[in-house]
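Write out the 3D structure for:
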Amino acid sequence: MKASDLFVRALEQEGVECIFGIPGEENLDFLESLRKSKIRLILTRHEQGAGFMAATYGRLTGNVGVCLATLGPGATNLVTPAAYAQLGAMPMLMITGQKPIKKSKQGRFQIVDVIEMMRPITKSTKQVVNGNNIPALVRESIRLAQEERPGAVHLELPEDIAAEDATAVPFEVRSVRRPAADPDAIDQAASMISEAERPLLLIGAAANRNRTSDALTGFVDKTGMLFFNTQMGKGVIDERHPKFLGTAALSDNDYCHFAIARADLIINVGHDVIEKPPFFMEVGGTKVIHVNNFAASVDDVYFPQLDVVGDIAHTVERLTAKLGPSESWDLSYFERVKKEVDLHISQKSEVDTFPIIPQHLVAQVRKAMPSDGIITLDNGVYKIWFARNYKAHEPNTVLLDNALATMGAGLPSAIGAKIVSPDAKVMAICGDGGFMMNSQELETAVRLGMDIVVLVLRDDAYGMIKWKQAGMGLPIFGLDFGNPDFVKYAESYGAHGHRVDSADQLPVLLGSCLASPGVQLIEVPMDYSENERVLIEELKSITGHIR
């Protein structure tokens, strides 16, 4: 068969159901092979959007999300999604085209060294130089993308190789079970936990991707230990749980950090240093047990005293079997911190001033979304508010990027989430700056007949940086911009546009848009003056009894 047919057959063998992307002329043989296959092509409006969709597909399913681009500018547009998937541990395969490699057709026109460009931001990047190598390259690339720690891989298929004959056949796909942790390491961890006085449980991103919810909930229920999570660990345990302390949305000096500072042992499940640090270690300070599928990477702020490496759920189940509430534990201080968290996080959530303040926005979105509804957050200061204030009820229902922390991913991630979970309510929450970076994907969502809601939070500025600029005592400069009429903009794509003109409209629009078919965009004017009052001034003046 033709090599491009073999490539698509190999992807089918791997269970690939859809490919996101924008083909170019160097992909035409591959495109024809795809037309004859069972794999669905989801044409996007920008390669960056395709990459974010593929990464989100991988994040939610654990299977490899696949995206397609041509050579040169098509491939360079995948650099940000590659870094997004690589830092965020999302399994993704990028396929790019290339000019013929056996003889030049157009000199160096559009040619950049895509393999070397991708090398620092992927787990593997290879050029296909012989059609018969395709089955091995596809199998190995997908194996690497899925293997802990997951990430991005890349294959370049030159157009002359795609057109040549090949006689190889796809490899059989074999499932691989994660190894169990060393029993001695589990015993040592159990002893450290039993002997601690103030242990605290931290849940990170890897716990979300490895389906550890039941095991960790059982651990907390049996031991009575309080827990907090990182931003990408939200929802692994239902955050309505009475032992939930909060989310480490800031790196330091938030309420939960007072509990962290008082802990003498942190059981850190599923975290690695790629995610913004939820706490800072100090030599001679709090002890840390690292529980993950891979050993900890030692960093200035993270150097655990014990690694328990193996399948996370199995490790947690074994620890649960060995532990219960310990007479040596004193968790009373953590309970006091929890009361403070619950008190302050809920403050002003019902204040319905206009423009909308973040606390009220988060509270209204939480009321409107069902427990299994998925919100996808772009990157901006509102992400901190949602991480702190929005209680996730189920795993992978709050999709945010706390690794690369790129703008422009919110809307494409919502499209990817809707493809994975077509019956779920899905809402993209974007700042006006981030939204406009990939707003053209509205057309993709409309064309696909999706029912999604898009909140565009308008403050007419790059608000996060403006806040930081003011916090440094610098004059405001270079961060304000103009915006289109978002209602008309949505309607121009065939979506439905709405604008919040008063505070009492917000819950009404959220409810009606979630219940309505089609792509529903809601423009929400925002007042971010609470950033300084809550995230700076309030945290400086936390009362003495919690200190």
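The chain has three domains: 3-163, 183-341, 346-535.
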